[in-house]
Give the backbone structure.
Amino acid sequence: MSAATYSLKFRLILILFISSITPLVLIGSISYFSMTEILQNKAEGGVKSKLHQVKLSLEETLSQLNHASQQLAFDGRVGKSVESYLSADIYEKKTLQDEIRSALGLIHFTNPTLGLMYYYFAEDNQTLFANYNVREDIDIKKLPILIQFDKISYFGPHLSLNPIDGNQVLSVFRKVELPSRDDVYVYIETNFKWAENIIKDTEQFGGELVHLIIEPGGKVVYSENTDDFPLGMVHALDKSNPSIHSKYFLFEETSNQAWKVVAAIPKSVYLLEVNRWMRQFAFFAALTIAVSGFLGWLIWRMVYRPLRMLHLDIRHMKYQHEAISARQSPITEFSVIYREFADMRRRIYELIDEVEQKEKSKALLEVEKLMTQINPHFIHNTLDTIRWLARANGQKEIDRLVSTLNKVLYYNLGKGGPAKISDEIEALKHYVELQGIRYHFEFDVRLQADPKALSLPIPRFILQPLVENALYHGLEDKGVIEVSVKEDGETHVMIEVRDNGDGMTEEEMERIMSEDTGERKQVGMGIGLKYVYRMVKFQFGTAASFRISSQVGSGTTISLRLPISRTEGC
């Protein structure tokens, strides 16, 4: 199957496309992975850094709440004053009340991050010493618990209990443990927007960053997006939650108290810069391909038009023999090609005219040669005249010799096309008879032919050159030449000529197979083995075989294997 061929146009477009797209693919791949990693590291680094700050701020705030609540507990100075206040008379209560409020004010002043604080009496559901108003519709026990210990609870961001605040705060609820009462607690929350400032103090990602606070048990106690992360949701960070992980990238920081602060970023927002860069790269890539295509089109026009003109000149040269002037081109290479082609075309026309003149001269010489050749019929008629004169004068030997020679010449000059094997054997007998009269030694030619093979067609002059070779190379007195013809299977006929002469060396066999020499042409009818070899190869090709085997002092054997043709005219 022949290889597929493609036009120059297709190859040029393919090469230009590959040369344009390959750098884009390589640079684009490297740039994509590099830019993606850089942008993602930038975004991830910013989120983690902010998240770490939020965790530290929350831990510090909770530490301040814990420290302040310790001052208000029974172990602290204010806690002891509260114990005295509960057992004092009305006059002492007034003094102690002022003292407690003054202490609370001092604590609030020294801790500006704190907001509402008061004592809570659970059995009476009563609040005392509050520095701000307290909402009455709030059940402290229902606030979201961030961390809970035996005597102290930290509540995650929730709505302030100060009715005029309305902001998210962190708070602590601590048992005071007064000797006289077991139901007294102190409540402290952060100041106004402090908790919100800690969590929401970021402009990253266009405000799409969602913060979560998760208590140690894995439950969400604070969420900036209650639709996707409702309060009380558990296992929000588990990989088994595809609705979350398919939409958000999650980053977390764990405190030393096991609660976590989490930043959830929508994937579309997180990859916004990457996608923006990809769109820009795709635009420039498309622009580059378009420019490359335009340049390829220009290059194609520069190459195609001169080639098309050259193609037209070749077609014109093929079908017409009129001389035309050389074309001109602004491209140096094509200008040289046009000029060289014009010179070649002129030379070809000159060679054609020269060949035509030589053919005419050759035809005239052939006619002259034919005019000078002897007519074969004249030869036959002359030999017949000689034969009759010899017979009339009683010269029987001459009569027989001339008659045999006439038969050999008639067979050799025959125009009946390929002969049969029987005809070839008959002509060989006449040839051997003539050579027997010529040579001054006795030799015997033994013919063995398969009767089935006699009717098979065979080219003329096959046997005569083979026997002639045996006569000429080392056959002495009482020599024997054996000629055998037999069928070799149903497809071939085998011809062998074997003699008991002196044999030949390798050099002699090579010389015999070479072109005929002057000496060679003087022997017999002048038809050498080279003729037989060439004729067999020309007519039968690889279907026939020709082989010579000889040893000095042991004779020579020539084997000829020809394919059988059952039709006449083989």
Remarks:
- Residues 8-72 form the longest helix (65 residues).
- DSSP finds 15 helices and 17 strands in the chain.
- Confidence is low (pLDDT under 50) at residues 515-526.
